[in-house]
């Protein structure tokens, strides 16, 4: 599995710009450590279960670090390392999961465009409208244009 390190591309200024321009309406915090999270082991297990959302999952890392895993066009995992100051936007319908790294701690802000919805739909979800939209726009669209997302 390939590991991509998110660079320090995003700063607080960017976050402010993003929240304003993307019309982010709300956000909440996930402070993922055993002392602060009820049912810590269960939450970790849920985060690591492959799933999709009906909306984008937008996360800004305030402290700590962890891995978001996403699938490439050939259904192979790509591991993305997110750490303090990084932001990640997962399109609606993309299969993904999350886990901690060796630091064993992360504080993530989730940003919502519109009403906050937390629902996870575990794989398989091929008939879910968000999954169908993702495949149409990103997977099939990339193949038609000859641009493929690949793990190396
Ligand atoms: Fe998710």
Automatic annotation (TrEMBL):
<keyword id="KW-0963">Cytoplasm</keyword>
<protein>
    <recommendedName>
        <fullName>Acireductone dioxygenase (Fe(2+)-requiring)</fullName>
    </recommendedName>
</protein>
<keyword id="KW-0533">Nickel</keyword>
<dbReference type="GO" id="GO:0009086">
    <property type="term" value="P:methionine biosynthetic process"/>
</dbReference>
<keyword id="KW-0223">Dioxygenase</keyword>
<keyword id="KW-0028">Amino-acid biosynthesis</keyword>
<dbReference type="InterPro" id="IPR004313">
    <property type="entry name" value="ARD"/>
</dbReference>
<dbReference type="InterPro" id="IPR011051">
    <property type="entry name" value="RmlC_Cupin_sf"/>
</dbReference>
<dbReference type="Pfam" id="PF03079">
    <property type="entry name" value="ARD"/>
</dbReference>
<feature type="signal peptide">
    <location>
        <begin position="1"/>
        <end position="26"/>
    </location>
</feature>
<dbReference type="GO" id="GO:0046872">
    <property type="term" value="F:metal ion binding"/>
</dbReference>
<keyword id="KW-0560">Oxidoreductase</keyword>
<keyword id="KW-0539">Nucleus</keyword>
<keyword id="KW-0732">Signal</keyword>
<keyword id="KW-0479">Metal-binding</keyword>
<keyword id="KW-0486">Methionine biosynthesis</keyword>
<dbReference type="InterPro" id="IPR014710">
    <property type="entry name" value="RmlC-like_jellyroll"/>
</dbReference>
<dbReference type="GO" id="GO:0010309">
    <property type="term" value="F:acireductone dioxygenase [iron(II)-requiring] activity"/>
</dbReference>
<keyword id="KW-0408">Iron</keyword>
């Amino acid at each position: 599995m390939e590991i991509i390190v998110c660079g320090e591309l995003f700063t607080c200024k960017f976050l402010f710009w993003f929240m304003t321009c993307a019309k982010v309406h709300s956000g909440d915090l996930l402070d993922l450590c055993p002392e602060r999270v009820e049912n810590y082991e269960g939450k970790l297990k849920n985060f690591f279960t492959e799933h999709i959302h009906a909306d984008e999952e937008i996360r800004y890392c305030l402290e700590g670090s962890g891995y978001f895993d996403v699938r490439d066009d050939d259904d192979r995992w790509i591991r993305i390392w997110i750490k303090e100051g990084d932001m990640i936007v997962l399109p609606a319908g993309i299969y993904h999961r999350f886990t901690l790294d060796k630091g064993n701690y992360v504080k993530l802000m989730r940003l919502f465009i519109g009403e906050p919805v937390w629902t996870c739909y575990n794989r398989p979800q091929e008939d879910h409208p968000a999954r169908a939209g993702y495949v149409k726009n990103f997977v099939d669209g990339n193949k038609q244009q000859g641009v493929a997302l690949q793990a190396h």
